[in-house]
Amino acid sequence: MQISSRFTVALHIFTCVDTFKDEHKVTSDFLAASINTNPVIIRKILTQLKNAGLINVIRGTGGIELTRDLKDITFYDVYQAIEPLEDGDLFRFHESPNPECPVGRNIHSLLDDKLKSIQEAMESEMKKYTLNDLRSGMQELLANEA
Amino acid sequence: MQISSRFTVALHIFTCVDTFKDEHKVTSDFLAASINTNPVIIRKILTQLKNAGLINVIRGTGGIELTRDLKDITFYDVYQAIEPLEDGDLFRFHESPNPECPVGRNIHSLLDDKLKSIQEAMESEMKKYTLNDLRSGMQELLANEA
DNA sequence: ACCATTGCAACTACATCTGTCACGAAGTAA
DNA sequence: TTACTTCGTGACAGATGTAGTTGCAATGGT
């Protein structure tokens, strides 16, 4: 299964907030236009980011403020906020292998640490990137455009 | 989204084939009993593994034979056989960011390499484990049982 | 009071996952 | 040939998740 587009949408949101915060009021409508989706989709994602403590959303006026410095929010933080994994496990395991089968009753012991190391390889790579990388990367891309 | 249990089922299948190949005829019914699911589920997964060129499935008599040595089949090979990723991308990207928005038209350039490196971190960890590790691990677990 | 905006529930449409049934195709053995 | 076992596959159901949409109450600034 692919990781849902909510993750890339969330990164898009953060990039917009940083890029436009001094020029525009960054509302869910504004974001929806840039991302090309529905404002309600944006609000649902904003709610997830808010529940994870990454942002505050301002009602009435509209607008988004980060609760931490850009360099202190990693891709992993965003991923954790956005993707609800059952028990935190990337790999779904078949429910009830047969305990009367020698393989069935040992398959979890056999696989669990290996699956975990794969998941951790992915997550630790995610921790290498921060929102500050998005800022500097986008500034560079925009400079090349001009 | 979690990775489907078909992946752990496939690893369970390979472990059973190796563990029981000299004692039992390893049929889809036999495997279904160990995994505690339906034989048709097993057959569908066997079809995927066969299409990927990892195994041959024998009709009539029943049975499964590997096309390569255990050490030459990695978790990644199994994962690729089992999980059909659209365009091979782990991360789904929102379809059509707005090209009139500076962020919208650059978001792909900004994110693509970062997402790819995360995916590759996971995949290269998967390549570290082979079916031979499953054999030796299971033999050790069974020895501890006795 | 008015207005813009967020929060949220309800709903649709669609896809995927797991499981199940039915039946034809392939292969073995009497 | 016939009988038997097993695989291959299409069709389907139920549960869950995704993405999108509508409507409206709640919030907060002017």
Mind explaining what this structure looks like?
The structure is a homodimer of 146-residue chains. The first copy, chain A, is mostly helical and 146 residues long. The first copy, chain A, is 54% helix and 4% strand. The first copy, chain A, has helices spanning 6-20, 28-35, 39-51, 75-82, 107-126, 131-145, and strands at residues 55-57, 64-66. A two-stranded antiparallel ribbon of chain A has the order 1-2. Chains A and B meet through helix 1, helix 2, helix 5 and helix 6 of A and helix 1, helix 2, helix 5 and helix 6 of B. The first copy, chain A, binds a DNA duplex (30 and 30 nucleotides) through residues 1, 4-6, 25, 27-29, 37-41, 43-44, 46-47, 57-63, 92.
Care to give the gist of this entry?
The structure is a homodimer of 146-residue chains. The first copy, chain A, is mostly helical. Chain A has 6 helices and 2 strands; from the N terminus they run αααββααα.
Which helices and strands appear, and what pairs or packs with what?
The structure is a homodimer of 146-residue chains.
Chain A: H1 6-20, H2 28-35, H3 39-51, E1 55-57, E2 64-66, H4 75-82, H5 107-126, H6 131-145
Antiparallel strand pairs in A: 1-2
The structure holds a DNA duplex (30 and 30 nucleotides).
